[in-house]
Amino acid sequence: NVIRVEPLSATIVVAPQFESGRYDVATGPGERRTIALDATTMVALNGSTRMTFDRKNARFASLVGGEALFRVRHDDAAPFTLHVGRNRVEDVGTVFNVVNDAGGVRVTVAEGEVVYNPGDRGISLHAGQGLIDPSSSKTVRVIATPVASVGGWQKGQLLYGGAPLSSVAADLARALGVRIDMAPAIANRPFSGAIRLDGSGPGQLERLAPALGVTVQRGSAGWIMKPGDGAAR
Asked: Is the pLDDT of residue 131 over 90?
């Protein structure tokens, strides 16, 4: 068995929903796009990401899947609200990054503050903090996050401090535009270190394998990541 990490197959798509004013934007594998919702709100979409926006409400967005970086100026009268599945992230004037994929939801904050699921049990995150809400558990973890690492994909650098390999693989799948199948035995193995994306595309995965402690090989529909030599299989 393998765990599949697969980017969206669509290229950039803008699909208007005229009655509500909502529309979808999707980036293809390895593709990026920046959307200005108004003069004070910018959203940068990483590869293999799909979002919904509203022409009638620039303070609304929904991250259907993938990863995006948000630069928002706070407005007490109309806070910016991001919907992530059944969860919500509300800004308090900030720069923050959100991932929504098969592993769950990850939020990291570079500037200001956000509130995850506002309400009596809302979790406030300040600059230098992050949150992991795994799909496999009901336990939400707040973690320390280097500010320089937030949205690092925009600068071609991914920084990790004990992240499971499944999350690293998902990030690489978005950035490199490939599908990665992973052996379950290594999915939760922690990885700490920095990965600098060199722009060479999928071939970089082979060169990264030793640093990740894995082996990779081409499959019929993408790449397969397995335990490295001598590791438990």
From this structure: yes
Higher per-residue confidence, 93 vs 225: 225
Please, where in the chain does CATH 3.55.50.30 lie? 153-227
Q: Dihedral (C-alpha) 122, 147, 208, 168: value to the nearest 10 degrees?
A: 0
Nearest to 63 by CA among 49, 48, 51, 75: 51
**Residue by residue, what is the 3-state secondary structure of 193-230?**
EEEECCCCHHHHHHHHHHHHCEEEEECCCCEEEEECCC
* Beta strands at 41-45 and 157-164: parallel, antiparallel or unpaired: unpaired
The CATH number of the domain covering residues in 9-147: 2.60.120.1440
- Residue 126 and residue 113 in contact, taking contact as beta carbons nearer than 8 Å: yes
* Predicted model pTM: 0.85
- Give the tens place of pLDDT for each residue, 90-103: 998 789 999 999 88
Task: Report pLDDT for 15.
Answer: 46
Rounded to whole angstroms, the Cα distance separating 205 from 190 reads: 18
8 Å CB contact between 58 and 71 = no
153-227 belongs to CATH 2.60.120.620: no
